[in-house]
Amino acid sequence: MRWFAGIYNKNGISLKVLVGIVLVVVIVVGLYAYYNYKISEGKAPKQIISNITTETTSQIKNATILNNLQPLLPQSYSIQVNEPLQVNIPIFSQGDIASVYEGNGKIIKINNNTFNVSYEYPGQYLLYYNLYNNNSLIGSSSENLIQIIVFPYFNFSQSSLLTIPVMSLNKGSIISLGEQFNISIGFLQPPSGQNMTIYEYVLSLGNGTTLTIPALNSTGYAEQVALTGSGNISYIEPSKNPITLSFNEPGLYAISLTIITKNVSSGKTYNYTTYQSVAVSSENMKFSLYSSQSTISNPGIIVDAEVVPGGPFTFDPLLWIDTISQEVINNIYGSLIWYYQSSTTKFIPMLAEYIPTVGNWSNTTARYLYGAISPNYTIYIFKIRPGLKASNGDPITAYDVWYTMIRALVCAGGFPGAEGTYLAPFTIPNYNFSTFIIASPTDSLGAKEIINSVSYDNQTNTVTFHLVQPVNPTFFFNIMTSFDYVMDAKWLESVGDGLNLTGLYNNNFTQLAEAFYQYQQTCNAGNYNTQVQWPSSNAGFTGLYYIASFTPGESVVLKPNPYWLNNITYFPKPNNTIIIDWVQDPTTALNMLASGEADIVTFPKIEISPYLPKLEQLQSQGKAKIYGFSSLNIWYYDFNLNISVPLLKQINPSYNIPSYYFANPLVRKAFAYAFNYSEYINDILGNSKYHMNFGQPWCGVLLPGVDYSVPPSELSNCPTFNLTYAKQLMEESGFYNISVYFPIIVSSGDTVDFTAAEMWAQALHEMDPNINAQPLYMPWSTILSYDIPAVNPMPIYYIDWNGLPISWDWLPFNYQEGSINAAPNAWNISFLTSLSLEFNSTNNTYVGALIWQEAQQFKQLVNLINEADNADVEGWSNASVIIKEAQQQAINLYTMVYVVIPNKFLILAPYMKPYQNNIGWESNPAYTNGLEQEFWWWTK
């Protein structure tokens, strides 16, 4: 989020209306607000002036209120825009009349105890009522204000035109008469549409004063000026003072902020608004929040502020690849099994009723009552819980589990990622890693293999996995936790994403193969079924929550699945609404926490170290708790061996680099030796600077916690910073005299690794003046959308891998030909061989030989990884030797620049408590590498 506060007398606002209000406007890091989904095209925004009412000033101001009445009782503390909310007045006698203050400047008269309210604009609204009998005021709930959060809904086309206004008050929503308080304004994300920019801000103070503030130089920042009650206007330096407000009349004010966005090509403007109620209390007119809200803000709602500009990639549980998507998927789709607390070797049943065991196999009755594993570890039977229902009421049975697994296998090989790739190696004979199982429309054998891999029995409500090789239970259960999300088959078919199983019912596997072959096309990015990628609230969610509202790139609102069973051990039926906001920068998220407007802050893709002083300050003030733990997560810079130059020039026409630049192994090695690893760890990441362990350097992807982990001390050819050697390598590469200009891409908001990229770019230019590298921020979702074979325009990009505690999840997925990481970067034996021949054909046999040798080394690595996978799965006695050699060969190829294994930190409001008061439920390394929250295990 970018924050700039500003007040500007553009429209000649009368200074008379500013008496009693002092405004000083500068750049301010702000906090938080909720949002408006309305678009108004081609005209100025609707000006909403919310004055304190005649009734407020004349009848209440000097009244002695005899009764401090009970608060209003809403059915929910959060609703969507224009959604009716039923509210009850707890004490209401015949003849009573109530004036209900909605917090948006409106008052409604009520003559019974039940009524509805709704809000056209999102925001945070305070509600209270005054009760009258025989025209006499007999009491008020003004000292028991309740707060309602109204959240938005808008579609993808609107998200490209709008930005969400952000408005925050440093002293909350209750202030005293004449008390000065700070207000910050800004935006959550800039509009994503072409030629769109932030044009101006309109701030209504709720007392008849409306201020228009231009944006600066199409950056989105508000112009920095100062305006005081004396009429003085002067420009001031940024970051000296916040906006300061004070009101000289008590009452309930509705402050609104509208941001106008503009298409600079067409001139069309659009607007988007948010509201916040502010209660100004005096001796004769007192306001305070209902006591249950005084220590815990927004009861019944958990707000998670996540520093992930751009948000998730997909909510399809079988086609996700990133931790941002995974967090939501974890909460809306149920799994057969789950990890027990922080253990990666102990599991608990979720949608399965029991964890299957080998001991149950010998007893046929027990086998199907409780689930079982065959003694040779090739058959796994799961008993599905009875009575399961999706959030839309659809029953979930063994058939749905089977249907989901078949869909996963059909989609195995989809790009940029498909979860069936985890299951296929163990159920499909001779499966070729990360490729589709159905090779052609007539591949009846492939279709039969898919069907034979998983079976179901609705009579016993069991699902059986038939494996093509023995897999030990701990290994298989680890794999299962990564892909066994269960979907509602009936719902999939209702939105046009169902499997055509006619061939199966006709026993015609050629017909089935044709249907599966056609379905495979929907498993690649760009061809997704968008109703499954971004499901609506009436979808068949099988987890503990459902998606109530989704604002693309901005936020998602989750509500409890009303049909979740009450008797599932370790998975308590939730009662909190969850709001996840994907904010632009860490400072915004931390300020949200400080103000009580966020309960959790997560930095899934951002290093925490620059924000430690702020965190320590919040801890000392009792506003934050921090938990640190190690992770199964590694970050690295990836090289792309076959850059899509046309797409790169769409990012910036000035970029210039041969597509094959990083296919040269000596170029990659030179770049690796030009990175200053110790400076990164000690100064940029900040281990020495802050005297705290934020992470550790590493070489290779088999990090601590992974079976057969190999420490760098036992490996050779791990690069260190040596600019002299790097220059020598670059000269030997044959590419020293090639002038290049290209980006080093880092996830938006990641200031630590952007700084590292700047350091690296400077060293690269010193190593070879022909190299001009430019660090470039890019939203995480955009990086993923580019990370596709044959069309990847990113020359070097910073990315990570979060994995399971088994080497099988690290070696093949990062290094194997066709894998999620290797394929988009053109690690392909045929490509390298052809490129070598091309260089030879131009008489550049030196480079041709380098790439030819590289192709042979990569071919050896591919074969060795296959052997290492079998060793890990089956537990060979010499597994450690084989796996270590595979890691060494990968390092020798310098496929990536290994940077850091980061430690992870949970940042919480002090009142947040984990399930059973045990933080282990929220700190399993296999699921919290990106700090994904399983929200059902949090209490507030």
From TrEMBL:
Keyword Membrane set for record: yes
Example of a GO biological process term: peptide transport
Pfam families noted in UniProt: SBP_bac_5 (PF00496)
The organism's place on the tree of life at top rank: Archaea
Transmembrane regions listed in the UniProt entry: 12-35
GO molecular function: peptide transmembrane transporter activity
Alphabetically ordered keywords of this record: Membrane, Signal, Transmembrane, Transmembrane helix, Transport
InterPro entries documented for this protein: SBP_5, SBP_5_dom
Domain Solute-binding protein family: 348-783
PANTHER family recorded: OLIGOPEPTIDE-BINDING PROTEIN APPA (PTHR30290:SF9), PERIPLASMIC BINDING COMPONENT OF ABC TRANSPORTER (PTHR30290)
Family: Belongs to the bacterial solute-binding protein 5 family.
Official protein name in the record: Extracellular solute-binding protein, family 5
